[in-house]
Write a structure and sequence with these properties.
ten-stranded mixed β-sheet, 45% helix, 20% strand, elongated, nucleotide-binding, UspA, ATP-binding, Rossmann-like_a/b/a_fold, Universal stress protein UspA-like protein
């Protein structure tokens, strides 16, 4: 998949500034077009409140004018720092839905959003707009958590060998041509608890773990061979609880981007990455790229 159009959403917060900066770096490296969006959402008001707000100068047209001026300064600063001058768009509506709709209509290849919005203290864990975008967007969504200091260098792709994981790995390879790519799988031994409950000793359980490890390695080798650029990927498997081990391994190799495939039929829940993605969206310290299986 060639990335030709990247969309970044901003509410002019620090988190959004970091996300747009990251989007600009990616667009520059990929030779892609960059669009920066800002959504204005005025909740429905009664006539009396509408008249009062309009009288104080808070009409939607006035807010759009103000946002446009702020956006112009925002992208001017961005161009000075990155050499990328994006197209800008002021939207109307609830931010997550407005951005998702616009990205779909524009056939964007990637949506980039900051982890937290302007009202950080009102956000529990990941900001509500970011989390809704992860659920609503048809495109891959990059959740930027860190201020970008350099291009991504080491990428961890968590996999359950599903089509969504394959799409995620191929996108990472296409988007990040010079990065190191690690594919990581966490396996469990079927009925491991039951073995203990049945009185099996540690040697017996270790025996089944070795069988599980060999099978996981075989599946990893086969999975990598199905990827578009198999020679670029380093495969690793470990036994245990996926949400914890993925974070641990990301820290171990100093990954600056975590990539997950996801089936979104039920809001991040359908495969292994239902629970894993939901956990890592909130718990991972680095940036996170969530890729739907349809990519």
């Amino acid at each position: 998949m060639k990335v030709e159009r990247i969309v970044a959403a901003t509410d002019f917060s620090r988190s959004a500034e970091a996300a747009v900066h990251r989007a600009a770096l990616l667009a520059k490296a990929a030779g892609a077009r960059l669009d920066v969006l800002h959504a204005i959402n005025l909740s429905p008001l009664t006539g009396a409140w509408r008249n009062l707000i309009d009288g104080d100068g808070f009409s939607e047209s006035r807010l759009r004018e103000s946002a446009g001026a702020r956006m112009a300064q925002f992208v001017e600063d961005l161009a000075r720092r990155t050499g990328v001058m994006p197209q800008t768009h002021i939207l109307s509506g609830k931010p997550a839905q407005a951005v998702a709709n616009w990205a779909k209509e524009a056939a964007a290849d990637l949506v980039v959003v900051g982890a937290h919005g302007e009202h950080l203290l009102l956000d529990l864990f990941i900001g509500s707009t970011a989390l809704k975008l992860l659920r609503l967007a048809n495109q891959p969504v990059l959740l930027a958590k860190q201020t970008p200091l350099f291009a991504y260098e080491r990428i961890l792709i968590a996999t359950d060998f599903s089509p969504a994981s394959r799409a995620a790995a191929n996108l990472a390879a296409s988007l990040l041509g010079d990065a190191e790519l690690y594919v990581f799988h966490v396996y469990e031994v079927p009925f491991e608890r039951e073995l203990y409950y049945a009185g099996s000793d540690d040697d017996a359980v270790d025996y089944y773990r070795r069988i599980g490890q060999n099978e996981a390695r075989r599946q990893m080798d086969e999975f990598i061979l199905t990827l578009d650029e198999p020679e670029r990927f380093i495969g690793r498997v470990r036994h245990g609880y996926a949400p914890v081990l993925v974070n641990q391994y990301a820290a171990e190799i100093k990954a600056d981007l975590l990539v997950l495939g996801s089936n979104r039929q039920s809001e991040l829940a359908a495969t292994l990455f239902g629970s894993v993605a939901a956990h890592l969206v909130n718990e991972s310290r680095g940036d996170l790229l969530l890729v739907p299986s349809a990519v």
